[in-house]
Amino acid sequence: MAADNLPSEFDVVILGTGLTESVIAAACSRVGQRVLHLDRRNYYAGNWASFTFNGLLSWIDEYKAQQEVLNPELEQGWQDKIEEGEDVLCLSSVESSISNLEVFSYASEEPEEEEVVKVAAVNSFPKDSDVQAKETRGSTTEDQDTVCHDDSAPGNDEPQHQEPENKLTSETQEPHQSEEFEKEQEPISNQAESPIEMKRKITYAKLVKEGRRFNIDLVSKLLYSRGLLVDLLIKSNVSRYAEFKNVSRIVTYRTSKVEQVPCSRADVFGSKQLTMVEKRMLMKFLTFCLDFEQHPEEFQEFSEKSFWEYLRSKNLTENLQHFVFHSIAMVNQETLTEEGLKATQHFLQCLGRYGNTPFLFPLYGLGEIPQCFCRMCAVFGGIYCLRHSVQCLVVDKESGKCKAVIDTHGQRISCSHFVVEDGYVREEQRTRAVNRHISRAVVITDRSVLPSESDQQISLVTVPPLEPSSPAVRMVELSSSSMTCMPGTYLVHLTCSSSGSAHEDLAPVISRLFHVPSCPGEEPAQGSEEIEKPTALWVMYFNMRDTSSLDSSCYSLPSNVYVCTGPDASLGHDYSIKLAESVFHQLLPDEEFCPPAPNPEDIIYDGDGAQGEGPGFDKTSLAEDVGTEGKSGLQQNDQPAEGIEPAESSDSVAQGTTSELEVPTKE
Question: Which region, left, alpha or beta, applies to residue 405 given φ > 0 means left and ψ of -120 to 50 means alpha?
């Protein structure tokens, strides 16, 4: 269907394809609503998007070009569509949620054929054999970005991604192995500082050439294994469209060094960082946190005091206080005791469901998740148009409700409800100013901040405030096994609540953890501390507006217009899923939110008989089906998933666009 020839009436029009909007679109379409889903961008997921390296460079160029246009002209052609008794409410046509974007390239600018350099072998992991093995593995995925589709889009039969199965359990024991390996290697490393080995330098030309191997997220988050997003993925059967991998270790920066955090029982008792007394103290405290509500006498006197004060009162060592506060509860100095205990409890409850950390990460980046929900919406009849927006809302003066929208092609489209991303709302339509921002940095490095025997770790790194006035920083380090960077590099995301620009907030942390060359291609001096740090090859800083503190009372809009705020600063996705469910129930108070979709083999098509509700609709059998069929990337029965299906792309989902949507392969 052509974008300029859409149906003239829908139940719900949704503007923006971020996570919250995509979940609402899927939920509405699933219960039979006619959904039109639009986005002015040429890619899905909005501020939740993932880009290849080359795609990100194009996104940066577009941002800079937009900054030079001070007063873009509005589209014309809607004046004659307004009838008597109607008013017009114009929407913003300018993307204003990103600010202070800065890019620094530190990779060598030498031609690719000259990219050989001598490097001191100080604590160098992986070894030469590991690098060769990794490059051999990586070569098999050189051309993975071919476009593919399901049976709804004839003509292409090759799958887009060929990945090993059972990603969820492949690295659950690596943290212990890596720790023991490092301890065993310490004497050898100290004696081997003088040998020199040959290593290929990663140049900027190499990053551009291998740009398709990168999937760089604008938002950095993880999935709690018992969080609302994982529960929704399982319940709705949307998890079949994605693959996930365990975050294999949790790391913290303390006393100028990076060390692994023992958080599970096995980690605690296998740790060589803790004394036997500390192990007993930590296990006793964590056991208490699991059911702290049953022992109110233990914390009642601290109900109005901070969690930090409560930890200090428990006579925990400085080691343990740091681990619990910064890496398990992950709270700040103002957090009250009960809130801190709940955060610790949630962390512990998520342990062991899919691995020995509470977290999962979707292969190919977080931008896959909104696309999975868009795919579900399209399967149930939703219509998608990228590079297509809404100029204005048509408001009935008598009722004060939005009765139609006029798109950028000048077409008037009637609707009962309108859902819009916050970025499309004009400043004068807000009753409260937005003062909060998120500081973000993306770093491409040449090795891990904590080298280990395996070069395929996915790590969550917590960095406490470096200064009393500076924010705590959360860092996610992704290896090539996450399908987000090329072999031989790591993709590092840094996030914190803004106290200044992203560069001011995060540059000090980056300089502490990484070697930042003073000029492209500069090598650290032999014998200096910098030589032990990973080298930053490319860095991007930017601020993203955080509107999560706003609610419906903060906008002067018609009562049937619902605003979805953007990503918040937290590590998980609970805020966005709660918002999506809240908006859905305002739209359709009597309908179930995202009921299970049937499995493909349970669908009876027209001509084959009446379609009934197969096992996919039965709540009682959902966990059983997901666990035994092995088609979902996640499971409800706490067992690791097997046989996860690789994702593909379908042009049939969004006609006339270049963006990809994830669909299951045919078996």
Answer: beta
Residues 6+ apart with CB under 8 A from 491: 214, 216, 442, 443, 444, 477, 478, 482, 484, 485
Q: Which residues contact 566 (CB under 8 A, 6 or more apart)?
A: 18, 46, 47, 97, 421, 422, 423, 544, 545, 546, 547, 548
pLDDT, tens digit (0-9, with 9 covering 90-100), for 139-194: 433 343 333 333 333 333 333 343 433 333 333 333 343 444 344 444 434 444 44
Q: Which two structure tokens, joined as six digits, stand for 78?
A: 């809607």
Q: Please list the residues that pair with 216 across neighbouring strands.
A: 51
Rounded-to-integer distance, Cα 28 and Cα 591, Å: 9
Strands 86-90 and 390-396: antiparallel
CA distance 208 to 102: 18
Contact call for residues 274 and 287 (beta carbons, < 8 A): no
Measured CA angle at 208 (ends 205, 212), to 5 deg: 150
Give the model's pLDDT for residue 38.
97
Selection from 473, 277, 250 nearest residue 347 by Cα? 250
The dihedral over CA atoms of 86, 87, 92, 97, expressed in degrees to the nearest 10, equals: -100
Q: Token pair for residue 567?
A: 């990503």
Q: Which residues contact 48 (CB under 8 A, 6 or more apart)?
A: 18, 19, 217, 218, 219, 366, 367, 369, 370, 567
pLDDT confidence band for 433 (50 / 70 / 90): confident
Rounded distance between C-alpha atoms, residue 646 and residue 643, angstroms:
9
524 burial via Cβ count (<10 Å: 0-12, 13-18, 19+): middle
**Tokens 């398709």 identify what position?**
212
Residues pairing with 541 in the sheet: 102, 441
Helix axes 276-290, 337-350, angle to 10 degrees: 100
> Are 70 and 630 a contacting pair, CB within 8 Å?
no
Residue 300: exposure state from Cβ atoms within 10 A (0-12, 13-18, ≥19): exposed
With beta carbons less than 8 A apart as the criterion, state whether 648 and 152 touch: no
Closest by Cα among 485, 566, 441 to 46: 566
Partners of 442 in the β-ladder: 493, 540
Among the listed residues 205, 131, 50, the one whose alpha carbon sits nearest the alpha carbon of residue 521: 205
Concatenating the DSSP letter of every residue in 425-450 gives S-GGGBSS----EEEEEEEEESS-SS
Q: Beta 50-51 vs 35-39: how paired, if at all?
A: unpaired
Q: Give the rounded distance of the alpha carbon of 395 from its chain centre.
A: 36
Q: Which of 104, 115, 116, 139 is nearest to 203 (CA)?
A: 115
- Sequence-ordered strand ranges (E) for 106-195: 116-120
DSSP symbols for 574-634? HHHHHHHHHHHHHH-TTSPSSPPPPPGGG---TTS------GGG-HHHHHHHHHHH--SSS
Taking Cα atoms as reference points, which of 131, 113, 232 lies closest to residue 595?
A: 232
Asked if 371 contacts 660 with a C-beta cutoff of 8 angstroms, the reply is: yes
> Residues, the chain, total?
667
What pLDDT, in 10s, does the model give residues 381-400? 999 999 999 999 999 999 99
Q: Which residue would you say has higher pLDDT here, 379 or 652?
A: 379
Give, for 422, the enclosing helix (H) or strand (E): none
Cβ–Cβ contacts within 10 Å for residue 406, how many? 23
Write down the pTM of the prediction.
0.80
- Any residues with CB less than 8 A from the CB of 124 and at least 6 apart, and which? 197, 447, 451
